[in-house]
């Protein structure tokens, strides 16, 4: 009898373990190809492992709620007799959460726990949703699009306030506290923030930039840009382009410390911090120096959408040499961002505010933005950090420098 081991997918270098959320089949169950076997959650994504062929689930080795690591055997499959020459190990992740029915009915037992949680959380009963997944199956993104389109924000807030929280009552009935279980992502964020603070000599330096030239460019060419590329001309593409040129000028910042060595990266993978319902994540723009402005904007739009719907793959979150975070979208005027380990620096962008500025002896009202660079002082000296920010300032205040490479 041929037995195939089910293995945990390869996890990113920064992810040491994952958690078995639930087994969707039990030993002895017959499986069809692509039936979901198990859901695994890391601090970044939820992975589903489908059956690679028709067969039977022989054994569950690691139970629900237990921690697992990359490549660990978690179960065993028996292929159907007609399946010959199959590998004795199966290691595959499928980052698509789907169901077989286009009508939600909480009584349907084959729904995965995640979809059943969505049904319960948003009180969805007999709701018709067109599936966009494999063979017309409903994805989690389909569900969230329906929720965002058909349920008002006030209703969503009241639903979340009512569900998924444990209320602990004190003697006074009018005085309550709530205890909420931390998600894996939130726990990992907490761990990495402490790691960044405790394992580096962090220091933050600041500057400010006149954003009027960039805003004028967007006003003049924004509509043409969107018409041609079907994506809005945002600010982040300008930031990414400026950062790449500054990293070329200051290679110490595009580097990291590895024990007694310094690793200098000769490529430019830029992490973009994105806020999601589960917490802050930083997917990667790989080889960003080879991307056009439109490609950067399109890729950021895709990453942001997938991130908010928990659809990012491990590869989209793996690696990165330098991080840009933009608290300005939430109105942040000033901040000291924390380094994203094992990187050596992070750039914080902020809200653009009109302020009186002295220009050649005259006071002008200009749209100004503060820049904040947090860096590891073990590797980067003050001269390089200030020079890096000055280069960012020069490029954003005169974007023609990038075009002319000066």
TrEMBL record:
Annotated InterPro entries: 2-oxoA_DH_lipoyl-BS, 2-oxoacid_dehydrogenase, 2-oxoacid_DH_actylTfrase, Biotin_lipoyl, CAT-like_dom_sf, E3-bd_dom_sf, PSBD, Single_hybrid_motif
Name of a matching Pfam family: Biotin_lipoyl
First-tier enzyme category under EC: transferase
Keyword set includes Transferase: yes
GO cellular component terms, A-Z: cytosol; oxoglutarate dehydrogenase complex
Every Lipoyl-binding domain range: 3-78
Record text on cofactor binding: Binds 1 lipoyl cofactor covalently.
GO molecular function: dihydrolipoyllysine-residue succinyltransferase activity
Family: Belongs to the 2-oxoacid dehydrogenase family.
Function: E2 component of the 2-oxoglutarate dehydrogenase (OGDH) complex which catalyzes the second step in the conversion of 2-oxoglutarate to succinyl-CoA and CO(2).
NCBIfam families: PRK05704.1, sucB
Protein name, UniProt field: Dihydrolipoyllysine-residue succinyltransferase component of 2-oxoglutarate dehydrogenase complex
Record lineage: Bacteria, Pseudomonadati, Pseudomonadota, Gammaproteobacteria, Enterobacterales
